[in-house]
Automatic annotation (TrEMBL):
SUPFAM superfamilies xrefs: Aromatic compound dioxygenase
Record organism: Roseivivax halodurans JCM 10272
Entry protein name: Protocatechuate 3,4-dioxygenase subunit beta
Taxonomic lineage: Bacteria, Pseudomonadati, Pseudomonadota, Alphaproteobacteria, Rhodobacterales
Gene Ontology terms describing biological process: 3,4-dihydroxybenzoate catabolic process
Domain Intradiol ring-cleavage dioxygenases: 79-107
Keywords from the UniProt entry: Dioxygenase, Oxidoreductase
Length: 241
């Protein structure tokens, strides 16, 4: 912080690594005390990505995998927001990547086992770079919920996976965004590993009628807070490091 203010992390805001209701966390969580490694120079200074590498349609999942003149099937939405630091200031030049299931809840992945069909015009990945005020925006379809083998009949709420990349190779954070009004959110074993209802609500994007495109797309707003007491819950930083 340039003004010297330090915002400590609230560890109770983040889920424990070991959460038996989310079965794969049992074998993935560490069973011994964590060891702290100082970052290496190459981790802090190594190149991450070239800003000129992004294509024209990278932020448009409606069209970036579609045949010319066609678009993805499903409810058309805009997902937008800002990448913010702990003091609420926008963070520019962050690579924001998203991936999601199609409108039927199906991923384009060779290990995907759900019976819902693929959409030939939907790939499910996109990326953009945050602007000077930290703002980002994507066009896509509303993803469908999908079942997963946890306790036999668990369903993921509709969600979009987010990755944010900073200025160094080791600065990558990953989280998920949910949609206002989805009854599956509070039934999800993964969501329920997050101890605080307020932290879950921070992952739920509200419908924003002011940013809709009439006769075209609804809009959902999702701000990402990188750190501090009210950081977005990042699933790859569950220990609060
Ligand atoms: Fe997913």
């Amino acid at each position: 912080m340039s003004d010297g203010t330090f915002f400590t992390r609230d560890r109770g805001w983040h889920p424990p690594a070991f959460a038996p209701g989310y079965k794969t966390s049992v074998t993935r969580s560490p069973s011994r005390a964590l060891i702290s490694f100082p970052p290496t120079l190459s981790e802090q200074t190594g190149p991450v990505f070239g800003h000129d590498m992004l294509g024209e349609l990278d932020d448009d999942l409606l069209h970036n995998y579609a045949a010319p003149g066609e678009s993805a099937i499903g409810p058309r939405i805009i997902v937008y927001g800002r990448v913010l630091d702990e003091a609420g200031r926008g963070v520019p030049n962050v690579l924001v990547e998203v991936w999601q299931a199609n409108a039927g809840g199906r991923y384009r992945h060779k290990k995907e086992g759900y019976v819902a069909p693929l959409d030939p015009n939907f790939g499910g990945c996109g990326r953009c770079i945050s602007g000077e005020d930290g703002s980002y925006s994507f066009r896509t379809v509303l993803p469908g919920p999908y079942p997963w083998p946890n306790n036999g009949n668990d369903w993921r709420p509709a969600h979009i996976h987010f990755s944010v990349f900073g200025s160094g190779f080791a600065q990558r954070l990953i989280t998920q965004m949910y949609f206002e009004g989805d009854p599956l959110i509070w039934r999800c074993p993964i969501v329920n590993t997050i101890p605080s209802r307020e932290a879950v609500e921070q992952l739920i994007a509200p419908l924003d009628m002011n940013r809709t495109i009439p006769m075209d797309s609804r809009a959902y707003k999702f701000d990402i807070v990188l750190r501090g007491r009210r950081s977005t819950m990042f699933e790859n930083r569950p220990e609060g490091n």
